[in-house]
Amino acid sequence: EEEMKLGDMKVNEATRGLYPTATAKYALTDGKATGVEFTEKTYGMQVEQPLYYGGRLRLTLKQAQVNRQVAQAKFDKAEADIAAKITETFYSLATAQFNLNDQKELFAKSRGILVLAGKKYEQELITKLELLNVESQANQIEYQLAVAAKDLDIARINLLQAMNANPEAQITASMDLNCKEHIIDLNNCLYLAYQNRPELHMN
């Protein structure tokens, strides 16, 4: 952004070089000559018009315009790259949230099934092997729940890093426009990244 501002300044400066320049002059002289005091005031205007510089002025302007276009292109690329990264990490966080919720529901159901299987085993309605199979499945679901929780933490950190925000902030991705406390939507992520990513201000 700063590079684009500098480019604008150079374009304006090069453009001004093609037009006349005017300098106002004013002089005031007080004195005494042959016993007579006098005051002399002089006003003037000096105007300079470049007639021929071998195309140097127009070449300078053209170069300044090209540099400005390059600065704009670099800014657009940085903006697009950051937008893509934030979009990717945002939806990764949302997916991780959905997965964790699903695993929590599945874990709760598996606990209920395990309790029921234990009662059936006590009543000799199922064999020991069948009970062990239910316990194994319940343990597997519990492991999946732990993995989902870890994946959510990683997804949250990745999004915060993409925004250059506080990595310890607690945020939740919202898939709609209803934002509550500690809930952030994609547009807010892009805005925060623009505020915090230095390359958008330095390029």
Secondary-structure map:
Elements: H1 2-16, E1 21-33, E2 36-48, H2 56-122, H3 128-162, E3 172-173, E4 183-184, H4 186-196, H5 199-202
Parallel strand pairs: 3-4
Antiparallel strand pairs: 1-2
Summarize the structure in words.
With 203 residues, the protein is α+β, with helices and mostly antiparallel strands. The protein contains five helices and four strands, in the order αββααββαα. It has helices at 2-16, 56-122, 128-162, 186-196, 199-202; strands at 21-33, 36-48, 172-173, 183-184. Helix 2 (56-122) runs antiparallel to helix 3 (128-162) and helix 2 (56-122) crosses helix 4. The chain starts with a helix and ends with a helix.
Instruction: Determine the structural class based on helices, strands and strand pairing.
Output: alpha+beta
Strand order, sheet with most strands:
1-2
Distance between the termini: 6 Å
- Strand composition percent: 5-15%
- Give the helix level as a range of percent: 55-70%
General form: rod-shaped
Tally of DSSP helical segments: 5
Q: How does the major sheet shape up?
A: 2 strands, antiparallel
Mean pLDDT level: 78
Radius of gyration: 37 Å
Q: What is the H/E order? A: HEEHHEEHH
